[in-house]
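Example record

The entry below shows one chain as it appears in the dataset: sequence first, then structure tokens.
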Amino acid sequence: MSTAILPPAGEVHAAPGFSEAQFEAFLESRGEPAWISQRRRAAFEVYRQKLAEPLNPEEFKRVDLRAFQPARFAVSSAAAAPAQFETLLEKRADFAGAVSHIDGRSVVARLDDKLARQGVLFGSLCELLKTKREILEPHLMSRAVRPEADRISAWHAAFWTGGTVLFVPRNVTVAAPLYSLIGLSSAGVADFSHTLVILEEGASATLLEETGSAGSENTGLHVGAVELLVGAGANLRYVQLQNWNHHVWHLAHQAGAVARDGSLQWTVGGIGARLAHIHQQVTLEGAGSSGEVNGVTFATGRQLLSYYTQQTHKAPSTRSDLLYKDVLRDEARVVWRGMIRVEAEAQKTDGYQRNDSLLLSADCRADAIPGLEINADDVRCTHGATAGRVDADQIFYCMCRGLSRYEAMHMIVEGFFHGVYDRIAVEAVRETLSHAVKRKLGIER
């Protein structure tokens, strides 16, 4: 694979626009506590070292980065200006709190007073790291997303610009969902937002997160990370709707870790971006823990959306269940590479993964590669993948009954996605995904 961020042989340097001198200038502009700067410096050194190493060929060989030019993007040093975002989730539910980050800077942070009195933290990562260091520092990029994973995670760890924190104390239930927006409002901005969710033992919460662009033509770069840390007996529902415009490059490491008897339901909607590559991992660390991953992807034009998913079982009697459904049109391409890994001590594991693709044109392409790596002998692990085109007879049948071709296509696509919708407990999320599909098909604006 050829990539614009791979240095010439024998030469080690940062991606253009992210050199050592620019890193030092970035640090100086932040005004952060010394301990954060030290962690950034360590991550930058890892980043420089990783530039001398190739990206994982199994993960990246189907992701063409030759047109990617990091020098076109820069971290914004100005305060974010007010902007209008075509959000899909924000208007569809009543939230107990909301956080917004525009061009890497926090502009809104609110939380219901009752939850705040119970010890819930929800707000800006930059601000809360300063005031709640003793709670957050042990978890930040140490348990889920680690800088040493590859150059992209190290790049993020050195340059993260802000993001969202949700901390729920032991046995506290947040009944209403919380909302987080990550937005790009200016052309050429590089955003390195970070989401950190920590649920202590017995806690429960739902976080709905959305990415969005202020305009349809602005170029942008998002190098993000998501960390979902679920304590013993805790229950987290996390939704991320990726809704960038078609000129944004989206690279992210996202990881969840679930302790004994905890549960994580993770729903992903992949709608936007010019190119997106997400490394997504769920690690079941404690006995009796479970993880459910739901994915809905709709790619059009010349979009390339890529997912590298891992379900890792490290304890006995754990369960993971992944279902991704992709719809492709025009010359779009979707890549999914999935792996279930079972450690030797994870007896009585129940692991499942499936990817289904619906092709709406002759020129689109779906690559699905499921895999198993099992080191225990008392397990049940299965996987599968399917791909096929829309049945012309189904479209003809619908059109004979007064539907337009687009309306018929929507009914078929909606039915295809229904298997994922049925697994999502939050009605606002189901409605939002359905609305996003209609917009992609040109039925709604």
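Notes for this example: Residues 1-13 have pLDDT under 50 and may be disordered. The radius of gyration is 21 Å.
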